[in-house]
Amino acid sequence: MEQENAVNRGVQINQTFGKFTASFRWNDGYYSNRYSWLSGSLTYVNGPHSLLFIGMGNLRQTNWQTLATPVQNNSVMYAVIYTYTKGNWIVQPYYQYSSVPTNASVGVTHGASTNGGAILMSHNFGHGFSLAGRGEYIASSDSVAQNSVNLIYGPGRAAWSVTLTPTFQYKRFFTRGDLSFVRATNFTPGAAFGPNGTSPNQPRDVLEIGFLF
């Protein structure tokens, strides 16, 4: 639901200790060009099972927002991800928590947090065909009455989504579709979908065609 600190610039150190792998990263958060974020992760792998813990946050608050850098740039975030891999199957449930603290100097008069979860599954059918799918749910805390920061479709709101991703690959050629449906179950008018932000639903579709090098 577009909450993760997924695209940034920085440096990363990785280290493996037997069944454990740790990483540490200094980066610019949500592509803010302000290098004040620290991220760390610890993964435990045992056969087909793996468990990953991730923690990250901004060491200082920055009053800087663009289309690529939302107010979440001032947040802290934690996630726990379990992965089971067996044959042609991958199953991956996870839980995620984030918090944007109150800080009037950066425009956050009342902080808020989110709690979210998802389950991802994929299956390789062979002959170049595979299918992945995921279901997600997220809810934010606080309310409009408290003038809380808007983290998702309005303060104190929630949403869910389902996505299917069929893929075909032949040697270096691949084509991949992404079909998704998002529903804001409770939203602030003007903060959801459609030209006026008043629609609770949004279907999404993407088609990719390319070559691997």
Description of the structure:
This protein has a domain at 109-213. The two termini are 30 Å apart. A hairpin with a 2-residue loop joins strand 3 (37-46) and strand 4 (49-58). An eleven-stranded antiparallel β-sheet has the order 1-2-3-4-5-6-7-8-9-10-11, with no helix packed on it. It is mainly β and 213 residues long. The protein contains no helices and eleven strands. Helix content is 0%, strand content 58%. The mean pLDDT is 92.
Summarize this structure as a short list of keywords or feature phrases.
globular, eleven-stranded antiparallel beta sheet, 213 residues, mainly beta, 58% strand
- Overall shape: globular
Structural class: mainly beta
Number of strands: 11
> How far apart are the termini?
30 Å
Helix content: under 10%
Largest sheet report: 11 strands, antiparallel
User: What oligomeric state do the depicted chains represent?
Assistant: single chain
DSSP strand content? over 45%
Q: Count every helix, treating DSSP H or I runs of 4 or more residues as helices.
A: 0
Report the average pLDDT across residues: 92
Uncertain regions: pLDDT < 50 for 5+ in a row? none
- The radius of gyration is 19 Å
Neighbour order of strands in the largest sheet = 1-2-3-4-5-6-7-8-9-10-11
The helix-strand sequence is: EEEEEEEEEEE
Chart the SSEs and their pairings.
Blueprint: E1 10-17, E2 20-27, E3 37-46, E4 49-58, E5 76-86, E6 89-100, E7 112-126, E8 129-140, E9 158-170, E10 173-186, E11 201-211
Antiparallel strand pairs: 1-2, 2-3, 3-4, 4-5, 5-6, 6-7, 7-8, 8-9, 9-10, 10-11
